[in-house]
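Raw record, unedited: Integral membrane protein
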Amino acid sequence: MPGSTNGSTKTMGALTVGGLVVVTAYTVALGSNGWLWFGWVVLGLLTLALVLTQP
């Protein structure tokens, strides 16, 4: 079905958005941590790759 996403793609998207919220909250509360942002960027890139490789 065109335009639909499967469960794993939706789960990765939710984890990516949730990760952004957590990393942003950590940064506001305790200060920036480069490793957290790096991890979130890697997660975002993996999610993007998953979306782009869906049939």
